[in-house]
Amino acid sequence: xxxxxxxxxxxxxxxxxxxxxxxxxxxxxxxxxxxxxxxxxxxxxxxxxxxxxxxxxxxxxxxxxxxxxxxxxxxxxxxxxxxxxxxxxxxxxxxxxxxxxxxxxxxxxxxxxxxxxxxxxxxxxxxxxxxxxxxxxxxxxxxxxxxxxxxxxxxxxxxxxxxxxxxxxxxxxxxxxxxxxxxxxxxxxxxxxxxxxxxxxxxxxxxxxxxxxxxxxxxxxxxxxxxxxxxxxxxxxxxxxxxxxxxxxxxxxxxxxxxxxxxxxxxxxxxxxxxxxxxxxxxxxxxxxxxxxxxxxxxxxxxxxxxxxxxxxxxxxxxxxxxxxxxxxxxxxxxxxxxxxxxxxxxxxxxxxxxxxxxxxxxxxxxxxxxxxxxxxxxxxxxxxxxxxxxxxxxxxxxxxxxxxxxxxxxxxxxxxxxxxxxxxxxxx
Length: 429
Ligand code: LLP
Prior knowledge:
single chain; 429 residues; alpha/beta; Lyase, Ornithine Decarboxylase, Chain A, domain 1; TIM Barrel; 2 domains; nine-stranded mixed beta sheet; eight-stranded parallel beta barrel; 13 helices; binds ligand LLP
């Protein structure tokens, strides 16, 4: 569920008319619903309510300071993947003691910074990294809190670029090598305190089965680690998928009720119902690292149609956002629902490609998709763009980054200014 719907023929975010925002702030423009973000956070928190747990929001999905601040104020922890993300969390008022630090390639500077800030855990991805963490912590005269990421070799059944829990992926330590590594660490790595175990099998999982498979596979391991090494937490990662194909429709609770049982998408309530009984008696604090679930359906990218180009084979609607603003379709064949800001007067559709201005054939938002026949000057929204949208945007083709707006009820706040041409060259000589 989310805060985007038509009211009297205009697409609104909460109580704000998106056409007004587009007119005032220009396009391309990211708009987020704070109510949706906090609703998702609160529902996930509640779904795990029966057990000792913490929701560590995956900052990489959307790292705007105002988004982080709202989540920190509601008690979220944070899963970070760089010194830069830790810096953002601290600036937003987040507590480093509730931060976990993931990633296969942490640098010396990042390790030192995170140690000095007192993070909760380094989620370590190899024996080599654990040895290095031990070394750097020793130099600083500190004990580094850590967890090893186990690769459970479970197929997350998602796009190959965002599947992480198979042996052929670069992530984590092989399931069979974990017990030996904890044993070795307890003897050799005196500057490391292994306080947990971590896993994350992939992103955009829309069925519960891979989560159950991974949890059931790792329970005996985590139980043994608790007995032998006294670990206190288990992070089961993020990865909960969202609705992309009928994003607008899914804002309505009735849409969910009307989904047939067999094909009903994963809900957070189901996630909690299936996992909580399996996790309840482990005596461990359970961490979650959701990114997309919290912010994905809470954001849209608004863009304006510039031209309609009728080619020999296709009709192209050329818009003012490009793959530099939202790269998911180009990179993962990601589907984003496209809806006009003004509800179409007829149900007639035309089959088109919606493309950006970038000099690449991969610069498209959809191909051969039936859509309402919007015209140059009209605005459209690319739905479900709150996660991995702005966060993955770039200045490619020397295009300034778009502005970001946060809506709270009837209030819209610019939470990041549109870049200027001067911003584009700042730092260059
Ligand atoms: N924890 C770890 C260790 C991760 O690597 C990730 C995501 C998450 C948590 C959060 O996963 P989520 O709950 O958001 O699925 N750019 C891609 C997604 C990349 C995900 C990377 N890791 C996309 O746009 O689909």
